[in-house]
Amino acid sequence: MNNPSMLPFLLDDDLALIRSKSTRTVFKKGEVVLQEGAISRSLYLLVSGQVNVVKDVLGEEVVITRLEPGELLGIASLLNGSPIGATVLASAESTFELIATPDLHALLESIPGLAVRFYRSLGAVLASRLDAVLQQVAQPESR
Q: Which of 50, 73, 88, 124 could form a disulfide linkage to 33, CB 3.0–4.6 angstroms apart?
């Protein structure tokens, strides 16, 4: 995991430590990365490729957003154990770095200050996503 813009409050050493506990996984185009309703057991960082976040709306699959490298997935499951809110599909071959929740929690508890920097970074990610949603709502597509 080496995207300081996605996790802005982490130090280089923090990122290297998290990366040392991560595993790389590749999803082929069309594969389900995360299934709506499932509980994620890992935090996912999209390293390369592209994914679509989709929801079933009245029986039709609707693309909510498209995510590019550097994006994190599985944040809500990590924070509070809640189910995944939408299905994530690889729209191209996509590589992820995954860190299992227990491994991440062990790291956060073992390094002074890491948890504060990590959760502050996640707060920044979530605030940015909320801002994007609010902008979409405030400026609906013209018809």
A: 88
